[in-house]
Amino acid sequence: MVTQLALHHLPDFWKFVALRNIYGFLKTGGKLYLRDVVFDSGVENYNEYFSGWRDSVLKMAGEEFAASIDRHIRDEYSTLDWVMEGMITRAGFELNEVYQPGYCNKAYLCVKSVK
Q1: Which of 27, 81, 95, 111 is the most exposed place for a label (fewest CB within 10 A)?
Q2: How far apart are CA 115 and CA 113, in angstroms?
């Protein structure tokens, strides 16, 4: 199963409910690829972190899209990496891979484990 750039529209409680439901749909050994906007928890200065994200988008896609980054930070429900990873494992998944394909994006390969 694949979910990309969807969960950040949900508060963390509903993210967790969604992950538990997905876990229930999968057979043992089934995989979930989850990619979304997830913020690093090890950042020293979040003003610089978010400015860097906005600046990289501005260079690649222009002012209109960069303004959408400002709206995202203000209005969406993106979460920190340790929270997302905790929700994934508490839903029952094993985290097989975690990688960062973009500035504030994380991708997770999750497997339904045998309990």
Answers
A1: 27
A2: 6
Question: Residue 32 in contact with residue 100, Cβ under 8 Å?
Answer: no
Q: Where are the alpha helices (DSSP H) in the chain?
A: 12-25, 46-61, 63-75, 81-90
Domain spans, the chain? 2-112
The contacts of residue 82 (CB under 8 Å, 6+ apart) are 41
Any idea what the Cα angle at residue 98 is, between residues 76 and 41, rounded to 5°?
Answer: 50
Distance of alpha carbon 51 from alpha carbon 79, whole angstroms: 17
Q: What are phi and psi of 102, to 5 degrees?
A: -150, 180
3-state SS class at 47 = helix
Fold type of domain 2-112: Rossmann fold (3.40.50)
Q: At what angle do helices 63-75 and 46-61 cross, to 10 degrees?
A: 150
- Residue 115: its pLDDT value, please? 64
What pTM value is reported for the model?
0.89
